[in-house]
């Protein structure tokens, strides 16, 4: 199946918004751009279907930035440029640089999620632990990373009525994503555990523990 050609749209005087046909294309394009950042690129901000490329126009004019993005599209998403290919994204191997997050798997929704999926709670936890996750983008709240994985087999519905209070560090599932709440907030994800990791620290550099492109593995916390 061929991919749609990404659209490049101006976003003010110092950014380009790239519209892609899905999250896989965003991830591949983000990786390609991040490997070869020219001087003048300020930030790459991926989302579910878009990638914002922020630049300093004094060092990198917008047209030059657009040409750089177009070259990356041709190289990273050849099926979009040529109309060929199946659009599949190769699974990346585990890396020593993967972030390891300890989780206490006693979440309020663990049993209900497992029952909905037709598996045991132990099986669900084991799959979550065995999966190599990747930060696709940051959203919802500062430091809230949307984690994806090619081999994660489950699609988990959100709560019909969101909780008014989710504790910081709560680890949850929603759709094909996993994630952890960096601070107390409302939320509709199904909670399967909790971590003590500092997911957001405004005094740290960077303040977010999870950054787009980072590999993540979960490890069961021992009491």
From TrEMBL:
GO terms for molecular function: ATP binding; hydrolase activity; transferase activity. SMART domains: AHS1 (SM00796). Keywords: ATP-binding, Hydrolase, Nucleotide-binding, Transferase. InterPro entries: CT_C_D, Cyclophilin-like_dom_sf, PxpB. It comes from the Bacteria. Residues 6-210 form the Carboxyltransferase domain. Pfam families: CT_C_D (PF02682). The keyword Glycoprotein does not apply. This is Carboxyltransferase domain-containing protein.
